[in-house]
Structures are given as C-alpha cells and as structure tokens.
Amino acid sequence: MTEKFEIQMHKLVPKHTKLSEEEAQKILEQFNIALRQLPKIAKSDQAIKDFDAKPGDVIKIERISPIVGKTNFYRVVINA
User: Fold this and answer.
1) 11-78 classified as CATH 3.90.940.20
2) 20 to 30 Å CA-CA from 3: which of 29, 30, 37, 80?
3) Is-contact 59 75, C-beta < 8 A?
C-alpha cells in the first residue's frame, strides 16, 4: 500500500496562496501592471491543485531566502 504524497507539504515547495479578486487588484495597482503582464502558472500545477484555481486567478508564492528574507512572487493561472 502506497502512502499519498502531498507536494505542498514538501520543505522545498514555497507556500502558495490564491488571492481574492480584491487582493489581486491591489497587487496590480501597486505594481502598475495588467494581469497579462504577470508571469504564468499552469492550472494543472501540482502546487495549486487544491485551490480550484481558474484562468485569471492570481497566486501568491512566498519564498524564503537566507539573504533577503521573505519575498513574494505573483503568478496568473492559465490553462496549460
């Protein structure tokens, strides 16, 4: 019997969070960019599989660096 592996729980996978529409809009305004200018993440990506993400949703990725500390990256979900 094989135990199910949860990729989101692996220590090398940064924390992913699906933003609300309001939060996403604030990020776009903060950086003065359009949704299409964000880097992309596939809807089928294993790190966001439990989010029920739809194309156009914004995902926040929190990475920890020993040099700069916590940094946030943002991706827009696409069908891929």
Assistant:
1) yes
2) 80
3) yes
